[in-house]
Each structure stands twice: as C-alpha cells, then as structure tokens.
Amino acid sequence: MNVLSSLFGEIVKRRRRWYDRHATARRRLACPVISVGSLSVGGSGKTPVVAHLAKLLAGGGERPAILSRGYGRKDSADGVVVVRDEEGVQAPLARAGDEPLMLARNLDGVRVVVAPDRYLAGRLAEMRLGCSVHLLDDGFQHLQLDRDIDLLVMHSDEFEDPQVLPFGTLREPLETAARADALLVSGDMSGTGKSIIDTLQLSRIYQMQRVLDVPRSTDSGKSPVPLSVSSRILAIAGIAKPDRFFSEIGTFGGIVVRTLAFSDHHEFTQQDIVKITELVRALRIDLVLTTEKDYVRLERYQPFAFNVAIVPLKIEIEEEGEFLSWITSQLAATREKRKQTDGAP
C-alpha cells in the first residue's frame, strides 16, 4: 500500500477509536436512526438504497425523514433546509442539492431535510415535520450522530483493489466494514469479493442488484419513451462511475453513438448545452439519455433543441421480505429500549 494511503488509513482508524472511547460525543435523536453509507467515494448505490428503504418504511406506516448534507449546493445555508415536507417539494436545486431534490421529487410521503449538521436536521424533522424514523444518507463516516442501524452499501468492484484515499477509492480501510450491522452488496460476488466478505464475518449480508428502468419522459407523468433498434442515442452522465451507466443503457435497444462523461455533481453550463446541441445535430441523434440526478441539473436550460429522456436507477434486494422484517424488528427493539430508559418514541 502507498505510504500516503497508509497514513490516511491510520488517521481514519484513530478517528473511529476516538468516538469509541467518547460515546457521549455522539448526539442522539429522539427517533430511531438508520444510517446508509459506504466505504468508497461514490458509485456504490447509496442513494437508490435510501430511496428504496424510504418507500418500504413509508409503505409500512412509518413517516421517514431523509437527512442529507446536500453536497454541491450553490446556496449552502448554515441552517436547515426543508427540501420536502408532507405538502411536497419546498426547495430549489441551489438550496437542496441534486440528490436531495431528486429524492424529494420521487418520494411521496417522505420528508427530505438538508443541513451540514444532520442532528439539527433531524431535530427539525421530529419537531416540525412529524417524522417517526430517520434515514441518514451517506452516514457511515458521520460519527457525530448516533445510529441504531448501520447499513453499508458496496459494489463487488470495491473488493478488487481495496486501497484507501488518496491512491485508492476507499474512505476507510476495508476491515471497517465489519462494524456495519448489515452489508448490502451488488455486482458479481463469485470471486475475490466473496472470500473477503467471509473474512469480515459480517452477521448479515444481502445481495442486491442495480436495475435501470426504461427511459422515461421528463414531464410529470414520466411515461416510457419507446426506442427502436435504429434509434441513435447520445448518453450523458455526471455521476460517479459513469461507464457503468453507459454500458447498461445498451440493453434498451437503439445505438449508443456517443457518450459524454462529466464529473460527479457537475454544474452544467450554457456552453455544455451548446456542445450537446452541436453533437446532436452533427451525429443525427434521435434521443439524449441521462440520469435522474443529472436531469435536475440540466432542466434549467429548457426548452432544449433536442429530445431528452431520463433513465431512473432502482435497486432490488434479494430476500427483501427478510430484510424488511429485520429492519422492522430492530426499530421495534430500539423503541422498546428507549421507552424503558428515557421515554423516547
């Protein structure tokens, strides 16, 4: 391992040990907290897992609130921003951030709250929005906030060369995964990944699959957009690991003539739109395909001089019934324990 990566790994391990020794430094919210996080810097599938879990919890009668940092916001207010409440979406992209806004638009009955201090976000969600459970988005390293369930999301690619930053993609050493209550893993686990997971001795492991939905229109109805075998496609993505998106959209049919990759959370400019328009004309493109996350950053340039459709990303959890049953039982146990100790909900 590179010297700098070794040094970084030691620093983050010491940080965790400090919180282990100073448990009171972690602030605790009144309602249960489910953390959904990862070891890698991006592309593991945290956000789709948060969305899926929020739907499962809301379907079971819970009132979930998603607590997000709101990475990449242009208007980074110090206070708490309510992106969605029971009435609907309440904040624009500049104040919400792309992922929170995307979640807010897709999740009826789910509160979405953004703040640098996730504890303050959670307190507001409890006191003003009537939430019953929190989903801490990208929370595995957010040790300042106590959690009752720690979910770790990983892709099999992360096991191939598990180096920490700055020369790898991991924010913490791989062995830190053993601290999770459950691992949700996607990708091919038949090789190296399976043997590594076995050594971690995690008590709960759930296999999941990333599934691209069919291309859909950008209007409120999000109706399916048909593709023919001759449809000429320009694919655009400003996300972590865009190559995965580009390879998977080939299953829809049509011809992917060109791909355009931007950095994660890229702020699209008028020059970008001009470039896309020129490519559409030069390459005789029938349809531009992009992700939901990218579209919330593109839409301010409407109307476009080209046809565009979004490709939603979903996840499917194998043995989902058992997974939800475990989550439900953990929440019940947490509430019972709190009732006995401090009367919290």
UniProtKB/TrEMBL annotation:
The enzyme's main class, written as a single word, is transferase
Pathway the protein contributes to: Glycolipid biosynthesis; lipid IV(A) biosynthesis; lipid IV(A) from (3R)-3-hydroxytetradecanoyl-[acyl-carrier-protein] and UDP-N-acetyl-alpha-D-glucosamine: step 6/6
Q: Name one Pfam family in it.
A: LpxK
Keywords of this entry: ATP-binding, Kinase, Lipid A biosynthesis, Lipid biosynthesis, Lipid metabolism, Nucleotide-binding, Transferase
- One GO term (biological process): lipopolysaccharide core region biosynthetic process
- Molecular function via GO: ATP binding; lipid-A 4'-kinase activity
Q: What is its EC number?
A: 2.7.1.130
CDD domains to which the protein is assigned, alphabetical: SIMIBI (cd01983)
Q: Name one GO cellular component term.
A: plasma membrane
- Xref: PANTHER family: TETRAACYLDISACCHARIDE 4'-KINASE, TETRAACYLDISACCHARIDE 4'-KINASE, MITOCHONDRIAL-RELATED
* UniProt-listed NCBIfam families: lpxK (TIGR00682)
Protein name from the UniProt record: tetraacyldisaccharide 4'-kinase
